[in-house]
Amino acid sequence: MNQRDESSLPPIDRMLPNPSGLNADFYRIAAETGVINIQRCSDCSAYRHPPRFRCAACGSDAWSWSPTSMRGVVWSWTITHRAIDPAFAEQLPYVVVVVEMEEGVRVVGNLRSIEISELRIGLPVAVLLDKRSEALALIDFTPR
């Protein structure tokens, strides 16, 4: 039986996405620039997320990546009390939020540096990127 030596692997502290297509560009641009960029329609100026090839507002396939303000408000949240893997047990409980960005799109990420009793809909938050590689930055939020 062949066993892999895992002593040189970084510790597992988060589930990492395996982005592809336009999603890969979304995560790569965040890692490269330190700013979340959202697709914006070149014809009607509507923002859209998650990334897709056509605008839901006007049907155009013309778009560009547009930097965000990196600010938003909590739209919804869930609190995780049970680890899906023992590697995550030390982080419990942790908060996953849906944040409505100032640009009007909703983005999901972990909320850091907050007491659970302080959570509320409309809580102003700022983006805190967690760069994991040249091609991947995870989205976290912190109260502002």
UniProtKB/TrEMBL annotation:
InterPro entries tied to this protein: ChsH2_C (IPR002878), ChsH2_Znr (IPR022002), NA-bd_OB-fold (IPR012340), Thioester_dehydratase-like (IPR052513)
| Family annotation (Pfam families) | OB_ChsH2_C, zf-ChsH2
- Provide the ChsH2 rubredoxin-like zinc ribbon domain boundaries: 33-63
Give all residue intervals belonging to the ChsH2 C-terminal OB-fold domain. 65-127
User: What is the name of the protein in this document?
Assistant: Unannotated protein
Protein species of origin: freshwater metagenome
